[in-house]
Automatic annotation (TrEMBL):
Pfam families: RIO1. InterPro entries: Kinase-like_dom_sf, RIO-type_Ser/Thr_kinase, RIO_dom, RIO_kinase. Keywords: ATP-binding, Kinase, Magnesium, Metal-binding, Nucleotide-binding, Serine/threonine-protein kinase, Transferase. SMART domains: RIO. GO terms for molecular function: ATP binding; metal ion binding; protein serine/threonine kinase activity. Residues 1-22 are annotated as: Disordered. It catalyses: L-seryl-[protein] + ATP = O-phospho-L-seryl-[protein] + ADP + H(+); L-threonyl-[protein] + ATP = O-phospho-L-threonyl-[protein] + ADP + H(+). It comes from Catenulispora acidiphila (strain DSM 44928 / JCM 14897 / NBRC 102108 / NRRL B-24433 / ID139908). This is non-specific serine/threonine protein kinase. Belongs to the protein kinase superfamily. RIO-type Ser/Thr kinase family. It comes from the Bacteria. Its EC number is 2.7.11.1. Residues 41-291 form the RIO kinase domain. It is an enzyme of class 2 (transferase).
Length: 296
């Protein structure tokens, strides 16, 4: 059975539990503070952002007086760049390192994947759909928001379902702050493509991947762009990333094609690194996932 969560968890316009009056009071307090954040940093915008699913992990910092420190670029891409950000609350010394994914402004974006992935997704406002289909400046900005909203919502639902994905901390505009998969010193976990695992580790990673794909298929979904380059491995734990294009394989008319491509992309890597074909047969895995998703 496909599990659903409260849609408010994936709503980026949700303002949290503070009332408008409380938010106004806190904003005034911030303006009246004697010290501003150091140059190049910013105050935490947690209060005004959409929040990740509850219960919040203990490491999430929600205090109004926290500030964010930019630590550098983790990854650049055609649709978005990912930065390393450290959020610090000086009063207690609490700090956490996160990944900030920022979808680019319309003059720099190249959303080459939109058409196929947006099949089965429709905006309620026809004016917005016309702008997107016409690739106007307004439409391109809407596409950026759609991708950010889609990834935030997907991560929220998948994290609640137990799928190995980064925890989505908050969404503010087209910036998604999420759990940083790596070490406290800012060293990012390697991608699967960078590894040369021993046979036992290879088998364990394959089993973790199959479990993750089955969890997606149970929900009628597939990653949509899966490859060894958007799978991280942190101290033996496999984590799926880059999920704005999660595909509903039942609604999308090309759903089975997306599922097949995901399976063959990753199975090819595992087989090339020594996984026995009787274990990593892509056609067998595809049939297993299609059955779980109830594809005919």
């Amino acid at each position: 059975m496909r599990r659903r969560v409260d849609e408010s968890l994936a709503n980026p316009n949700r303002k949290g539990r503070l009332t408008l009056e409380e938010r106004g009071r806190l904003a005034i307090e911030r303006e009246n503070q004697d010290m501003a954040p150091p140059e190049g940093d910013r105050w935490s915008n947690w209060v005004d952002a959409g929040h990740g699913p509850e219960p919040l992990p203990e490491w999430v910092i929600t205090e109004q007086g926290a500030c964010d420190h930019e630590l550098g670029v983790l990854k650049t891409g055609k649709e978005a760049d990912v930065f390393l950000v450290r959020r610090v609350f000086p009063d207690t010394g609490a700090e956490v390192t996160m990944a900030a994914k920022r979808y680019r402004s319309n003059e720099h974006r190249s959303f080459h994947r939109d058409a196929g992935y947006l099949e089965g997704r429709r905006l309620r406002r026809t004016r917005d759909m016309r702008a997107i289909e016409g690739r106007t400046s307004f439409g391109m900005n809407l596409i950026a928001q759609q991708w950010a909203i889609a990834e935030f919502g997907a991560l929220s639902e998948l994290w609640l379902a137990g799928v190995p994905v980064p925890y989505p901390v908050q969404l503010y505009g087209t910036e998604l702050l999420m759990e940083f998969v790596g070490d406290p010193d800012g060293t990012a976990a390697p991608r699967l493509a960078q590894l040369r695992p021993e046979p036992d580790e290879l088998l364990d990673l394959w089993e973790q991947l199959v479990s993750a794909l089955l969890a997606l298929a149970e929900r009628g979904q597939t990653h949509g762009d899966l490859s060894p380059y958007n799978i991280l491995v942190h101290h033996g734990r496999l984590v799926l990333i880059d999920l704005p294009q999660v595909v509903d394989v039942v609604i999308n008319p090309n759903g089975r094609d997306f599922l097949s491509r995901d399976v063959h992309n990753v199975a090819k890597w595992f087989l090339a690194h020594g996984l026995p074909e009787r274990i990593g047969d892509p056609e067998h895995l595809l049939d297993l996932l299609a059955g779980e998703a109830r594809l005919t």
